[in-house]
Amino acid sequence: MRVAVFSTKPYDRRFLDAANTGLGHVLSYYDARLSPATEGLAAGAQAVCVFVNDEVDADVLARLSSKGIKLVALRSAGFNNVDLEAARREGVTVARVPAYSPHAVAEHTLALILTLNRKTHRAYNRVREGNFSLEGLLGFDLNGKTVGLVGTGKIGEVVAKILTGFGCKVLAHDPRSNPNCEALGVRYGSMEELLSSSHIVSLHCPLTPATHHLIGSDALKQMKRGIMLINTSRGAVIDTQAVIRGLKEGIIGSLGLDVYEEEADLFFEDLSDRFISDDVFARLLTFPNVLITGHQAFFTKEALTGIAETTLANITAFERSGRAVHEVSVEKLARDPR
Ligand code: NAD
């Protein structure tokens, strides 16, 4: 198939080219994000391939469909940036990569927790400057602490497994309990119980209307004072303005983010010679107890290999049979809302 591949960096191209070996799809790579301003680049293609910050809304889908695009192949598990209702109307199939190394994201979650707790990022700089003072670096034992996981699907389950190894008690909230987590000793409860009992809360649910700003003013009122909040799911699961208030009031003791609700204008680009015009993001950067990574939790060799292979498998299956391997659609979601 002729595929217009948006939002690509050299590393994406390397892994996709390797997965395309012997398949012969014609992959045209673009740095640009898919948007109303760039959709013209898809002219002559039969499919588009997109990532987390591409805009696949009703307007873009109508324009793509009029160009003969039949498939949107997501290189991500999340599909909150695609208007599935519009895709159905336009007869465009949407496929995703439902699983590709949940370990990558789970292990990065632990990197955020351990760094924020033991302040290794600050220690690294201090020691290089000959400052061996420990003042300000005090952490706590993870052993025996309660960690609340919101969402115990593929990623949440691996996080639960790792935390159990650290000796943590794991509480979870998920409309569906996961038997593998229950076997680990994870206890399910309400969101209120999770917020009021956890020392650390980590988000692993998808972004849906039900989870949009799940952590906002109301959640702050229920939190144990001084909690560590970690978000590696999607930015808008957190109401950033409310969380900033929580940091200023000391309700949130530390914050680790790999995702941000307005990340599309910032992440994945080198903006180091410009100023940050997003004042909310700039405010976050002023807190010594906030650690932000730019949507890199998925970024391991294993995950990039899995993403590329599953994406190419979706494209190949669609070319051969008119059906992708991992389709996502309004009908499918109505049957299984996970
Ligand atoms: P998954 O579908 O396996 O699990 C998601 C879980 O969330 C399910 O068990 C589901 O029942 C639960 N859930 C749904 N609504 C909920 C709610 N209102 N409250 C609590 N739980 C709810 O997905 P996954 O592979 O574990 O990925 C989870 C999310 O992580 C993805 O949706 C994606 O947004 C994000 N993600 C981020 C990165 C990254 O690089 N930062 C990479 C991959 C995935």
Automatic annotation (TrEMBL):
Pfam families: 2-Hacid_dh, 2-Hacid_dh_C
InterPro entries in the cross-refs: D-isomer_2_OHA_DH_cat_dom, D-isomer_DH_CS, D-isomer_DH_NAD-bd, D-LDH-like, NAD(P)-bd_dom_sf
Gene3D superfamilies given in the database record: NAD(P)-binding Rossmann-like Domain
Keyword annotations of the record: NAD, Oxidoreductase
UniProt keyword NAD, yes or no: yes
Record domain D-isomer specific 2-hydroxyacid dehydrogenase catalytic: where: 3-328
Ranges where the D-isomer specific 2-hydroxyacid dehydrogenase NAD-binding domain occurs: 110-297
GO molecular function: D-lactate dehydrogenase (NAD+) activity; NAD binding
Family classification: Belongs to the D-isomer specific 2-hydroxyacid dehydrogenase family.
PANTHER family, A to Z: 2-HYDROXYACID DEHYDROGENASE HOMOLOG 1-RELATED
Name of the molecule in the record: 2-hydroxyacid dehydrogenase
Species lineage: Bacteria, Pseudomonadati, Pseudomonadota, Alphaproteobacteria, Hyphomicrobiales
